[in-house]
What we know:
The structure holds 2 protein chains of 2 kinds. By secondary structure, chain A is mainly alpha-helical. Chain A has a single domain (about 5-300), classed as ABC transporter involved in vitamin B12 uptake, BtuC (Orthogonal Bundle), CATH 1.10.3470. Helix content of chain A is about 70%, strand content about 0%. Chain A has helices at about 5-30, 40-60, 60-85, 90-110, 140-145, 150-170, 170-180, 180-185, 190-220, 230-240, 245-270, 275-300. In chain A, helix 1 (about 5-30) crosses helix 10, helix 2 (about 40-60) packs antiparallel against helix 3 (about 60-85) and helix 11 (about 245-270) packs antiparallel against helix 12 (about 275-300). Chain B is mainly α. In chain B, a hairpin with a 2-residue loop joins strand 2 (about 190-195) and strand 3. In chain B, helix 3 (about 55-80) crosses helix 11. At the A-B interface, helix 3, helix 4, helix 10 and helix 12 of A face strand 1, helix 6, helix 11 and helix 13 of B.
Amino acid sequence: MNEALVVSILVITIRAGTSLLYATLGGILNxxxxxxxxxxxxxxxxxxxxxxxxxxxxxxxxxxxGAAVLVGMLLAAIHAFLSITMRADQVVxxxxxxxxxxxxxxxxxxxxxxxxTTMVGLQGPSFQRIPIPLLSSLxxxxxxxxxxxxxxxxxxxxxxxxxxxxxxxxxxLHLRAVGENPQAADAMGVNVSATRYLSTILxxxxxxxxxxxxxxxxxxxWADNITGGRGWIAIALIIFATWDPLRAVxxxxxxxxxxxxxxxxxxxxxxxxxxxxNMMPYIFTIVVLVVITWWEAISKRVGAPAALGTPYARExxx
Amino acid sequence: xxxxxxxxxxxxxxxxxxxxxxxIFLALxxxxxxxxxxxxNPFEAYRVMLQGSLGGGYAISETLVKAIPLMLTGLxxxxxxxxxxWNIGAEGQLxxxxxxxxxxxxxxxxxxxxxxVLPLMAILAIIAxxxxxxxxxxxxxxxxxxxxxxxxxxxxxxxxxxxxxYLGPWRDPAGYGFPGSxxxxxxxxxxxxxxxxxxxxxxxxxxxxxxxxILTRTRWGYEIRxxxxxxxxxxxxxxxxxxxxxxxxxxSGGLAGLAGMAEVAGLTRRLYGLTVGYGYTAIIVAWxxxxxxxxxxxxxxxxxxxxxxxxxxxxxLQTPAAVALVLQGxxxxxxxxxxxxxxxxxxxxxxxDSSQPSLEGGGQ
Lengths: 318, 364
């Protein structure tokens, strides 16, 4: 393997990994408080559609990104309301979100182009890659890690911040306590509902950004079903990362790498049919899930927050 | 003053009917607002939808055509949901059933006696769907792998596989390069009852009866219900949860596989465009029907009406058919929000009153 090939694979790995990592981090923040969000695919889809539509019509990429953040928060708030206040089944609420978001995004995609036409094939503003002086001239790592867009660079700050928030601050401690044992957290004086609302809505913002980076960064444009299951892969990555933001980076790079290799094989011209290449991330997800679950079982560690998926009601003692 | 949810002593009897009805109404109101926001007259859109899906014999028959796969997959996922096994993979199981049935029709039918073709298609489709549903069940039962993700990933794999076949090796050589397999021979056609409504409808009704019988009249059904309602109690009474997961998923996947066979043999009569999302709508169908087999048949028909209506407004008003998906998601949201009223009532407390005696006392 020559250097150019390795670098080109690394570059795509990180570009593809960026949106996955945003979504995974959002999911971790969200699930740490005990709220399971299976609506990530739908929220990402809406993030991608909104970001592209708004950026296209306003011509300002940041306005598009902001709109995706708002939409992500709004959709997550619906999920939070159903899961927390109405104590609905979180699995079903998440699935409803995915169907709803996918449908609405597809609807928007067909109507929000110029003059009520389709958005497919339009060229809008996109995040430009900005080389960082000095660092970008490092061999291998320079081109791949330091010639990316702003959204990737933001992750270099966001990941350690999120880790610090979760493990080294009081709000982080409260958040994890709510996810592990809401009764005890409540007794400690933590407002369980408010904490869960906050973490779900902030998580939704990150998931929305994950979608926005697809249509404004990695794929640059709108296509029906643009996420192609990335929201679900992000959920698998949360499990892979054992709900730890630092490990999520490894997972996102792994799956970004799968995307990049798929890309390279296709570009190199191969007899393997594209359909089979496109199956790779999904097969890989299953394999990773099996390995990680099996490993957790034999090492007797549990990554998931203990109260994940269970509504909390103070007056009902269990 | 504060508003609290208070647990009912008795489940509200009216709620399981009233909640879905009100939810559908509220979802339609929401949909109307959405259509208006996009500059579409909602009354006109709903009129076209209703006319196209339920107005007259032809419209109803087209709705039934779409209801058949929803019924079979809805029944399949409902039995899995009963024991809280989240089978999101009906779409992929349906696809695999369609592939297996198409294989028989395309490559074996000329070597088989004609009366054996359809039964073999059905059997292989059921097996294919069962295997596709059985893999995640196996992984869940023996390793504990999250079934939501595995069933879902297997959808993507199956969908790509179907596409590969009808775009690649199974593409009709006489099809002028258009996607899709060669047409099936007549021995592989499922008989039609009226219009395009095929015998898959009979499969669905028989399956609903079978499911109702299993759930209410057999020990197996009892075990499934116990696992779903109280997994801990199930374990203490010695019910083998792993075995049940596997069996239920073979059954669930088999029904979805049969839906795939009914689609290719009854409707398209070749392998093409099989995966249009029935497996996902099935989740809504099962949930709205409270997992009741007869309810599934009814709700599948209503959801099919919504889908046909969506197609109609796309044709008549150039409104995206995705409106139907949005409405389905919205209905589910409202049902979920409303479900709390089955077990809780709203109480408005005028003043914080800590002196009020509480039955729940202090001790845990």
